[in-house]
């Protein structure tokens, strides 16, 4: 009886881990209800007009944003208020609900500054490139490379979680051994993948502290980077998968099916 409880525990933990990872993967692939609310990282550009205005004072900032939610992305048609980035694509929102997503691709590179400036009119893109410097947020090759590598680790972690769950259901001593190994490898991959994302998000957040305008009256740049729920899902999935190792191991050592 205790063996059954142990197996059940391990299966539930690896199942929950897999479920969290699936939610992480679907984040921002389209703008329907669930994917829209799950992102690795959110960039709020709402305050950027004020920041720019301080920098080019007394010239006004006009035509920076668009409120047309269906205007194609990355064609200089205007900035959206909020950008959310997932593992496969990013979406840009004019308000809470209305937005448009980029094409999806596996191993999508996280290059926030490139895709955001590509939405601005050419004059604002040039201005932004000149004003926003010396911060990791604008370092697209660094962010792109690390997010790309982290994607593969999270993908392998997801596959391992699924395989641990499936082999654990077989109820065989050898199956539990394989499950234990998949749970170990999977948690290691998730740990490294989630750590990389945590680091690149934390480094991107340095842009939150930038100021523009004259030194005696600085104005916040107005770009606000926040951690998305998908990162917490990745950490939660890691926690569940690593917690499943012990019951899988006990099942493997004690099961006499
Ligand atoms: C973006 O920032 C603006 C002003 O700073 C705030 O009013 C708005 O709620 C923020 N949007 C999101 C989705 O956080
Ligand atoms: C930039 O271009 C937009 C539209 O092309 C125009 O409305 C705006 O005034 C320009 N702003 C500056 C600062 O040149
Ligand atoms: C919004 O953009 C779409 C696509 O470019 C265009 O077809 C539509 O006419 C635009 N709507 C408005 C109100 O400008
Ligand atoms: C968001 O914008 C869309 C299109 O511009 C509009 O239809 C919708 O009512 C807006 N939603 C909110 C909550 O403002
Ligand atoms: C997205 O995909 C469509 C159709 O495959 C293509 O025409 C378009 O250029 C792509 N957009 C971007 C930004 O790559
Ligand atoms: C960039 O930032 C570093 C440390 O934050 C500083 O030492 C360096 O002088 C800055 N470079 C420029 C060009 O502002």
From TrEMBL:
Superkingdom field: Eukaryota
This protein's UniProt keywords: Membrane, Signal, Transmembrane, Transmembrane helix
Alphabetical list of InterPro entries matching this protein: SUR7/Rim9-like_fungi (IPR009571), SUR7_domain (IPR052413)
Pfam families for this protein: SUR7
Membrane-spanning parts: 150-170, 177-200, 230-250
Signal peptide positions on this chain: 1-31
Protein name: Uncharacterized protein
């Amino acid at each position: 009886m205790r063996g059954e409880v142990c197996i059940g525990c391990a299966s539930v933990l690896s199942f929950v881990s897999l479920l969290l990872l699936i939610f992480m993967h679907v984040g921002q692939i389209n703008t329907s209800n669930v994917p829209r609310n799950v992102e690795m990282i959110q960039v709020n550009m709402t305050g950027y007009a004020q920041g720019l205005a301080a920098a080019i004072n007394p010239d006004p900032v006009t035509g920076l944003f668009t409120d047309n939610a269906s205007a194609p992305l990355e064609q200089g048609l205007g900035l959206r208020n909020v950008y959310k980035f997932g593992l496969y694509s990013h979406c840009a929102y004019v308000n809470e609900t209305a937005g448009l997503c980029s094409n999806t691709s596996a191993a999508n590179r996280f290059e926030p500054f490139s895709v955001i400036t590509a939405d601005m009119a050419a004059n604002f893109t040039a201005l932004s490139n000149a004003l926003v410097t010396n911060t990791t947020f604008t370092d697209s090759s660094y962010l792109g490379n690390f997010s790309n590598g982290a994607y593969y680790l999270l993908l392998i972690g997801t596959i391992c979680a699924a395989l641990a769950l499936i082999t654990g259901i077989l109820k065989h001593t050898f199956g539990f051994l394989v499950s234990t190994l998949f749970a170990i490898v999977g948690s290691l991959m998730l740990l490294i993948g989630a750590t990389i994302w945590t680091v690149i998000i934390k480094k991107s957040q340095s842009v939150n502290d930038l100021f523009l305008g004259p030194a005696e009256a600085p104005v916040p740049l107005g770009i606000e980077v926040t951690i998305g729920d998908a990162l917490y899902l990745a950490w939660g999935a890691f926690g569940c998968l690593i917690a499943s190792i012990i019951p899988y191991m006990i099942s493997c050592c004690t099961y006499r099916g």
